Amino acid sequence: MIQIGRYQLDEEEMVLIGDGQRVLLEPKVFEVLTYFCQNHNRYISMTELHETIWQGRCVSDAAVRRIISKIRLLVNDDHKNPTYIQSLPKRGYKLICAIEYDVSLTENLADEPNVEAQLSDEVTVSEHVSAAETNDLNGETNQELAAHNPTSTDNVKKTRFKPFWILFGVIFMAVVAYAAKTWLLPASITTQVVNTLPGDKIAVTQSADGQYLAFSGQMSEESGFQIYVKHQSDFDFKPITQQAHLPGALAFSADNQFLYFSDSTQNASLLYRINIQNGENEAEVIAENYYFISDLFSARTKGGVFFAARESATSPFLIYQYDATNQRVSTITSSSQAESLDIKGDISFDGTKLAVLRTNRLSHSDEIRVIDLKSKEVITRKQVSGGVFDIAWENASNILVLRRKFLNKFNVFTGGEATKFKLEQELLNIDSNSQRVISINLGLKQKLFLEKSLPFSELETKRVLTKDIYQMRYFGDRTLALLKEKGVTQLGFIGVDTDQFDSILATEYKLRVLDVAISKNQILVKINRRFALFDPINIGLEYITTGDDIVSDAAFSDDGHKVLFTTKNYEQWHVSTFDIESKIVTPLILDARYVRPFGKNYIIGNAEGEMFYYETESRRKVALNQKLSKEPNTQWLVRDNFIYWSSHDLVHTNFYQLDIKDIENPILSKQQFKYTQVSPDFSIDANNESFLMSQTKNMTSEVLEVLIK
């Protein structure tokens, strides 16, 4: 047992103990934490971790940092003001808390050789260790056992431990049978369709007493999104909103008087409520000025509602409460780490506890927290691997944990995942009361790529490509594609007129194509948080940035000999160039987060996305009075005398073209589509003749009742 600050590490069971919790560690988390303890008096470099823990296997620096982040989450450490793990650039990591080893167990075992010498040939060393441990549990010390004569020791061991091993065998077989039933061969959950209305559905909820059911959806492309409500005595669902943009979360008040819902407009997410008892169906704004509201759930036993939201694009996701009596919003959770986001939640049936799904966007790990609403203290914490979609209380003891393929039960008191059910189909979310669990399935959708002809003012469709892929990019007369399947992203060439896909690169990391240099046969990609060059002919990958760099944007120079890329240093973004032949990195432009070549000059964007024309010789900057989107799934490029870029506000996807023939008087054009149908990603061919965009069409989904036995 190792004492690490106020936590204990059980090396035999790979368990970290602290804050009243016992957390079973992942193997690599355990190895790194143990290595830190063994070398707590010095800094450990990234290279040393690669060589010692991963022993030369090809693992990115980002993967190592994710392990460090998980350890910090486990011990509630703040990387900006650490009390456990300190990091220094170029030095590495150092465990700075107090370390103590509990050597009592080692000393006891060291005294036992005499006991082992007294044992008969019928007693093995492993039986001896088990016997010594069992005697300790019965209150007998190793010294007392050693005082027995050899004959009596043999007799005692033969008679005392045969029942123990029989009992152990019975328990072991029961555990194996239980594991085989719940984990090796998980039971399937059945679902049945709730009779609603045909069309695409995005959110569903039910009242605490089960009398009301509501969902938001789009019954046809022309109708837009609406909210529909049905009482159990009614025959049909009735629309209760006049117009809604994207109502992504719903919840009934505890007394069934109000239905609360969030709606994302072009500028922000707002929280509304509708009185469903007076028949007027007028939506009242009760909370505004939020960047995005991700979840909404009932207070269960009193007026008001809880919701998960972020106030700005850079602020953390937190849980808030709207008190209907005082008509006030208060903050329930807090986070010392900007990377930790409270994105989902649910209130227990008695209204006393809050379950929170906290996800870390850097380590891609999730944590389920149970908070006492009166004291605001964390009662239970459980680290789970990434990929949790939603959580909901099933009863007073268990929380349902929804994953892509499975539904787990997490026991609040034991900390264990008691049951694992295999899902018949993928579910979007879960909502529960004491009577039933409901959800929405992902439904059926068709992925299309629309190739449109330029000029931008017309964008007439030339052909429609039905491709079940993630991303397409022009590469001369060939087409690059990204295919995601079973956690692996593949980059390859796809036949436009066929479905043939020739993979050239596969990775479990996040992968995105940024730019292509056709004349040099080079593809610029972003793998996790690193820029890299990929040679599709020789199948070679060369990293440009390190895992420690904070990166933003990258593109090839006009001649394809260099890569322009931006990194952040001391709170300032700057542009550098990477010479592909010499491998030399050279600083280029200060105070720029975005960059594209424009002849001998550049188009740049600052940290806020504001665009400028940058003249190389004079270093003169001309404001273009337009802003790039900082959303990660958007795109921008410069072709001839035009700047193209995309943006979205969760309601609309916008494509822009800025004509900069006259740099002092640029001309803006815009094309707008529904965000739920058109992705902000796009590509333009080398001849500036075709504009390629993706569209999702023919979406259908159903409200389901989830039957758990």
Structural description of this entry:
- With 709 residues, the protein is mainly β.
- 14% of the residues lie in helices and 47% in strands.
- It is built from eight helices and 55 strands.
- The strands form 13 sheets. The chain has an eight-stranded mixed β-sheet, covered by helices on one side. Strands 4-3-2-1-7 form a five-stranded antiparallel β-sheet, covered by helices on one side.
- The chain is globular and about 70 Å long.
- About 9% of the residues have low confidence.
Give me a quick take on this structure.
With 709 residues, the protein is mainly beta. The chain has an 8-stranded mixed β-sheet with strand order 25-26-27-28-8-55-30-29, with helices on one face. A 5-stranded antiparallel β-sheet has the order 4-3-2-1-7, with helices on one face.
User: Could you estimate the helical fraction of the residues in percent?
Assistant: 10-25%
Shape: globular
Largest sheet: 8 strands, mixed
Instruction: Report strand %.
Output: over 45%
Number of strands: 55
Number of helices: 8
What class do helices, strands and sheet pairing give?
mainly beta
Rg estimate, integer Å: 30 Å
Unreliable runs, pLDDT <50, ≥5 residues?
103-162, 180-185
* Average pLDDT score: 82
Distance between the termini: 40 Å
Side by side, the strands of the main sheet go 25-26-27-28-8-55-30-29
